[in-house]
Amino acid sequence: MQTSRSSEINLVTKAFVAEFGSLGKDALNWSPDANTWSIARNIDHLIVINSTYFTVFDAIKAGNYKPPFMSRAGFWVNWMGNFILKSVQPDRKQKIRTVSVWEPRTGDIDEGILEQFAGHQDRLYQYMNELDGAQTVISSPASKFIVYTLDKALDIIVAHEKRHLEQTREVARLLKSVHP
Fold this sequence. Notes:
By secondary structure, this protein is mainly alpha-helical. The chain has one domain: Four Helix Bundle (Hemerythrin (Met), subunit A), CATH 1.20.120. 60% of the residues lie in helices and 6% in strands. The chain has helices at 4-20, 25-29, 39-62, 74-87, 113-131, 150-178, and strands spanning 137-140, 143-149. Strand 1 (137-140) and strand 2 (143-149) form a beta hairpin. Helix 3 runs parallel beside helix 5 (113-131). The mean pLDDT is 91.
């Protein structure tokens, strides 16, 4: 059964491919300034960050995931999950610096990034369907002290992808204004 989250992931994937799939390497790597990620770097960042969750997802599916010690602090689990989810909403204008483990590649990224992203999204879609309804607390791949429910983690992933789709659209609008 397809969940709402996996449907949203499909929509995000289709939007990225439809809106940016015809762009060449130069356009995908264009950035208005050193502090703004290009379209390609935004896409690469999503692949990097989501992939760090795959080991956790595999362990949960295999039944051998051990929840972190901090999972016992119910208040912390709920507060942290809600805090992270709020911070990655697509409509937030405040920039948030990512942790180094989730930085996208530097330098030019070839136009195959969209095909790579689509394949990555297929895998993420499968995880979302397979893990739907699983009840556990996980730690963020960035820190064992950042904990939230698996359910909240999946919501965070979807919201984060939508946030970067909006950021990528803004870069594309700027690109069109500079190179019509």
